[in-house]
């Protein structure tokens, strides 16, 4: 078995249809005042105190049935079923006639009070009632328990005596007292509320039977200090923008009459055009549109008169049945999508900052033009709302086309109006001065580019079969023949088309006249151009001849300059080279001096280093020589006398020579017997060598006898004898003279043998002996071409004659030169080393006896 159920409504619904929908305190007051407007009130007084707001009106009021069946009936609106004005008193018939439609139709506007304060007290009375009906509501009771039903919250009702408390002492109306305010209203907020309420009623309409007044006692003193009404809190709320709208600026008006839509544009009081067309909208049959373009001057005047900038005041407002629909036109709102479009071309489109105006519709079709539940959410997106958008697009584009094209010159370039593009900037610059002018449009009227663009607007209108041109500005289509010289002549075709479509005989005649004048002017211009061309050619020929002469003269002057320049450059080049040569010479001398100084320093350093090296070598060689001496002395152990050592050395020398000859014989091609005999000789020689080696280890002494000899001759003959026994040596004796000495010749033999033996060991092949005398002395200079003395002995020549000193790989005992020196010493003579490579490349000695 089926059961019928019912919805239950929570008490929390109060917030959904009230506080949550209205997020702005100004909108809350706006909704309550709008209810007074729909109640046919002529006057509304808003009294604001520290903890209460009282809104009083002198409308038709309510009786208990109205309160019970309408005011307390959530979401019910008598405005929808046309029962709102049933049994209305005759006092309100004139108002009903003026206000044929209602501003609200949702039945939830009274819940706006919850946004403002906790408590609501409503006192209301109809014309016929004798007492006032009073109800009291504590909105917080709805928030205690959301499980409680909406209808379970009690609303207190009582009656009160009438005390003429309604505006203008009327005996009817409604008083809404809201206490327990959620905030204390500041002065700035109250002034903002006043300006917000100014826009409640359409300033473009002709409604004069509704007023709003604000009373706030605590702000009276501050108001008294202000001179301008728009900066005061107390007083009647006037839509003073109507004063600004009377400015002579560019304005478009569009309205309906019967089946037609009329559109007209005025520019600072001058009609630009008026047209008529069939109303193509299905849902909009009663509307009017007014849009003003605000140039710089108009914006400045608006700010001075209103105390607020136009952009902060708003732009294009929407009114339904005479009351504003939010948020259209609010500062920052782009419901009309103007600013979005302007972003695509700042100089081609109008934005919310550029316009001020309204679209007002009158309708009973609440479904198609329904506002959103949120009081500032605009219209629901219905077919009717879309038609309003299309209406705005059509009207705003007409105004935009005129402003951008005629007043800004935006089409001058892209439409190619002029023969020379330079005129675009010229005429646009001329129009800039028009931005600060709100009294007259003479700049645009006189601007050739603006008039050409205006002609294009009118041509576009006449070409649209759905549009009937009722009037247009004839001055804007009048051109002087000379003005047409700068524009393309297509303008004549456009003017002719306008004349034909509008049946304007005057314009047609003017076009014909212009065409004739232009043809004549063209002919004159062509003739003048031909004459000018002939003159130009003559001038060109003369200029060519003059130019040729000038070129010849300049060529001659150029050559002179070049020659002078060449001479000057040659002189400068010579001077430069001379300077460079002098500088190079100085640099060379400096370099040579530096090189010389560096070379001297280097040589000095090398010499010093060499001296240091020589000193080191000398010390080392002396040490080596001393070591050899010590080694020799240690070997001989000093067992022989000096004479014995010298004698043994001579024996060793002779025997050694004999051994050499024997070895040569043994290696020659002789028979065996002879070789055996020679070998026996060699054995005896070897024994003699052994005996001399034994003797050198023992004491030995010998005596000899002196003889008187011719020493130079003796020396010569002795070398000749040696030459026979040493065929590999070549001897040359120079400077032989006679000089006799009493001397032991063996001493001389031993001295000379030692010298020759050393030369032989030094690989010498030639020996040179120079004999000379100085005073009573015989000088013997001995040279060979052997390997010479070792460098150590050259640096230490005295060590050559010391015992045991030798620097040779040849066989020897190191006593030969020591023996020579001692024997010469015994002969009262001397021997000195005179160097290598003096006469021959080998060693050289000088003997003085």
Radius of gyration: 72 Å
Number of strands: 23
Helix content: 40-55%
Averaged pLDDT, please? 83
Determine the strand fraction and express it as a percent band.
15-25%
**Tally of helical segments:** 23
Q: What best-fitting shape do the alpha-carbon axes yield? A: elongated
Quaternary: single chain
Task: Return the structural class.
Answer: alpha+beta
User: How many structurally independent domains?
Assistant: 3
Poorly predicted ranges = 632-639, 697-704
Summarize the helices and strands and which ones pair or pack.
Elements (H helix, E strand, L loop, with lengths): L12 H5 L7 H14 L4 E6 L3 E6 L6 H8 L21 H6 L14 H4 E9 L5 E8 L17 E6 L11 E9 L5 H12 L12 E5 L4 H5 L10 E2 L4 H5 L4 E8 L2 E8 L2 E9 L8 E7 L2 H11 L3 H4 L2 E5 L2 E3 L12 H5 L12 E7 L21 H25 L14 H11 L9 H5 L1 H16 L3 E6 L17 H12 L3 H132 L5 H25 L5 H24 L11 E4 H15 L4 E5 L5 E4 L1 H17 L4 E9 L2 E8 L6 H5 L20 H11 L3 E7 L6 E6 L1
Parallel strand pairs: 1-7, 13-15, 18-20
Antiparallel strand pairs: 1-2, 2-6, 3-4, 3-6, 4-5, 7-8, 9-10, 9-12, 10-11, 11-16, 12-15, 13-14, 17-19, 20-21, 21-23, 22-23
Helix pairs in contact: 12-15, 15-16, 16-17, 18-19, 20-21, 21-23
Write up what this structure looks like.
With 849 residues, the protein is α+β, with helices and mostly antiparallel strands. The protein folds into three domains: 13-238, Heat Shock Protein 90 (2-Layer Sandwich); 240-503, no CATH class; 642-848, Histidine kinase-like ATPase, C-terminal domain (Heat Shock Protein 90, 2-Layer Sandwich), CATH 3.30.565.10. 44% of the residues lie in helices and 17% in strands. The strands form four sheets. Strands 5-4-3-6-2-1-7-8 form an eight-stranded mixed sheet. Strands 14-13-15-12-9-10-11-16 form an eight-stranded mixed sheet, covered by helices on one side. It has a five-stranded mixed sheet with strand order 18-20-21-23-22, with helices on one face. A hairpin with a 3-residue loop joins strand 1 (43-48) and strand 2. Helix 18 (642-666) packs antiparallel against helix 19 (672-695). The radius of gyration is 72 Å and the shape is elongated. The N and C termini lie far apart (178 Å). 30% of the residues are buried. Mean pLDDT is 83; it is low at 632-639 and 697-704. Residues 746-846 form the Histidine kinase/HSP90-like ATPase domain. GO terms for molecular function: kinase activity. It comes from Myroides guanonis. This is Histidine kinase-, DNA gyrase B-, and HSP90-like ATPase.
């Amino acid at each position: 078995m089926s059961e019928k159920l019912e919805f239950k409504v929570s008490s929390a619904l109060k917030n959904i249809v009230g506080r949550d929908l209205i997020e702005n305190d100004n909108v809350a007051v706006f909704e309550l005042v709008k209810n007074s407007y729909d109640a046919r009130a002529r006057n509304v007084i808003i009294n604001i105190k520290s903890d209460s707001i009282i809104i009083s009106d002198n409308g038709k009021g309510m009786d208990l049935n109205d309160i019970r069946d309408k005011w307390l009936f959530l979401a019910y609106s008598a405005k929808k079923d046309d029962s709102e004005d049933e049994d209305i008193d005759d006092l309100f018939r004139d108002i009903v006639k003026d206000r044929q439609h209602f501003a609200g139709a949702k039945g939830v506007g009274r819940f706006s009070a919850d946004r403002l304060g906790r408590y609501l007290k409503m006192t209301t009375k109809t014309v016929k009632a004798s007492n006032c009906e009073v109800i009291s509501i504590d909105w917080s009771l709805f928030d205690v328990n959301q499980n409680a039903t909406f209808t379970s919250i009690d609303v207190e009702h009582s009656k009160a005596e009438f005390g003429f408390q309604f505006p203008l002492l009327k005996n009817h109306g409604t008083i809404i007292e809201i206490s327990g305010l959620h905030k204390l209203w500041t002065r700035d907020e109250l002034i903002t509320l006043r300006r917000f309420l100014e826009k409640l009623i359409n300033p473009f309409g002709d409604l004069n039977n509704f007023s709003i007044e604000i009373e706030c006692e605590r702000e009276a003193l501050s108001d008294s200090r202000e001179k301008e009404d728009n900066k005061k809190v107390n007083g009647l709320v006037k839509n003073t923008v109507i004063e600004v709208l009377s400015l002579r600026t560019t304005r478009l008006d569009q309205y309906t009459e019967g089946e037609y839509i009329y559109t007209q544009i005025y520019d600072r009081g001058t009609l630009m055009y008026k047209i008529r067309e069939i109303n193509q909208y299905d849902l909009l049959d009663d509307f009017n549109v007014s849009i003003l373009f605000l140039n710089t001057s108009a914006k400045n005047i608006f700010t001075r008169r209103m105390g607020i900038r136009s952009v902060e005041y708003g732009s294009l407002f929407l009114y339904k049945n005479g009351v504003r629909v939010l948020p259209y036109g609010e500062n920052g709102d782009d419901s009309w999508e103007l600013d979005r479009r302007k972003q695509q071309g700042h100089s081609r489109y109008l934005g919310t900052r550029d316009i001020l105006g309204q679209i007002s519709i009158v309708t009973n079709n609440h479904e198609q033009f329904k506002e959103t539940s949120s009081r500032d959410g605009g219209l629901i997106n219905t077919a009717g709302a879309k038609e309003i958008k299309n209406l705005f697009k059509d009207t705003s584009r007409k105004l935009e086309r005129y402003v951008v094209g005629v007043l800004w010159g935006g089409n001058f370039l892209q439409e190619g109006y002029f023969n020379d593009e330079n005129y675009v900037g010229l005429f646009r610059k001329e129009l800039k001065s028009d931005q600060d002018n709100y009294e007259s449009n003479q700049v645009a009227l006189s601007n050739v580019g603006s008039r050409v663009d205006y002609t294009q607007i009118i041509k576009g209108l006449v070409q649209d079969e759905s549009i009937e041109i009722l009037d247009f500005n004839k001055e804007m289509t009048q051109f002087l023949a000379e003005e047409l010289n700068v524009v393309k002549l297509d303008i004549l075709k456009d003017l002719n088309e306008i004349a034909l479509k509008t049946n304007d005989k005057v314009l047609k005649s003017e076009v014909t006249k212009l065409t004739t004048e232009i043809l004549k002017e063209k002919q004159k211009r062509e003739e003048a151009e031909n004459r000018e061309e002939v003159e130009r050619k003559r001038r060109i020929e003369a200029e060519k001849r003059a130019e040729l002469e000038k070129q010849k003269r300049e060529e001659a002057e150029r050559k002179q300059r070049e020659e002078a320049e060449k001479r000057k450059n040659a002189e400068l080049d010579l001077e430069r080279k001379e300077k460079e040569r002098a500088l190079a010479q100085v640099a060379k001398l400096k370099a040579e001096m530096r090189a010389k100084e560096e070379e001297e320093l280097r040589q000095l350093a090398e010499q010093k280093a060499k001296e240091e090296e020589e000193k080191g070598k000398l010390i080392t060689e002396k040490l080596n020589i001393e070591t050899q001496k010590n080694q020799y002395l240690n070997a001989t152990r000093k067992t022989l006398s000096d004479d014995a050592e010298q004698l043994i050395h001579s024996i060793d020398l002779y025997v050694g020579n004999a051994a050499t000859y024997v070895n040569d014989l043994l290696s020659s091609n002789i028979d065996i017997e002879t070789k055996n005999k020679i070998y026996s000789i060699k054995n005896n020689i070897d024994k003699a060598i052994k005996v001399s080696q034994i003797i050198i280890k023992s004491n030995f002494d010998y005596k000899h006898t002196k003889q008187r000899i011719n020493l130079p001759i003796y020396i010569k003959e002795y070398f000749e004898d040696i030459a026979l026994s040493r065929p590999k040596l070549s001897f040359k004796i120079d400077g032989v003279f006679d000089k006799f000495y009493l001397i032991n010749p063996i001493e001389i033999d031993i001295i000379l043998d030692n010298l020759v033996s050393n030369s032989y060991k030094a690989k010498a092949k030639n020996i040179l002996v120079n004999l000379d005398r100085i005073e009573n002395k015989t000088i013997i200079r001995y040279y060979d071409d052997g390997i010479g003395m070792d460098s150590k002995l050259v640096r230490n020549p005295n060590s050559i004659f010391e015992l045991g000193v030798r620097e040779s790989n040849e066989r020897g005992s190191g006593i030969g030169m020591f023996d020579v020196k001692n024997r010469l010493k015994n002969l009262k003579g001397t021997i000195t080393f005179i160097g290598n490579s003096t006469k021959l490349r080998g060693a050289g000695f000088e003997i003085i006896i």
